[in-house]
Nitroreductase domain-containing protein
Amino acid sequence: MNFKELSIQCRTYRRFSQKPVDPAILQELMENVRIVSSAMNGQVLRYVLVKDPALVKKLQPAIHWAAALPKELGTPKEGEQPTAFILVCKEGRGNPWDDIDAGIAVRNIALNACAYGIGSAILGAVEWNRVKDILSVPENWNPRLLMALGYPSCESHIVDVPESGSIKYFLDENKNYCVPKRALKDICLVK
Ligand SMILES: Cc1cc2nc3c(=O)[nH]c(=O)nc-3n(C[C@H](O)[C@H](O)[C@H](O)COP(=O)(O)O)c2cc1C
């Protein structure tokens, strides 16, 4: 896959086959995110890689999926749920740039996973206290984002923004995701 293909393919996935992700790939994701750019090289992010099936199962109810869709369509059912997670935390009070570091980190993980055909979802609407409790996260690690991972069992396609201007993602007749993206001319000035 070249970078353009990877950028098109690297979408949010919310339904997964139950084939586990190879632990060696999960390890690689962590090795590669370890060395991403970080403001002031501060490296305030901390991670919890969750691959134990019992813990993966326990985390599922703490996630709020797909705010744009009715719950029965957007929330993965049993047999469709992600098979691994990476929790991204900031240690202590962090620094003024830590959310930007977190964004860089999750995108790195998502692209790296996608290169192996593994789908992901960056999740912010998560009940962090439940997650901290389930995973026994150290007290001074503050969860910021959760990455869901697994082999996708649905597709996701980029579509043009319709006449109405709505940027709400939706499901097509095959329950595949359609994600409207604004045209470049509408978001980028060239000088
Ligand atoms: C910071 C951030 C937080 C997100 N939180 C959630 C979430 O809590 N639940 C969810 O289902 N999707 C979440 N998403 C996924 C977005 O809904 C998704 O990126 C958007 O619909 C565009 O789809 P795409 O990633 O395929 O381009 C989040 C994405 C980002 C970048």
Observations:
- The CA atoms of residues 106 and 122 lie 7 Å apart.
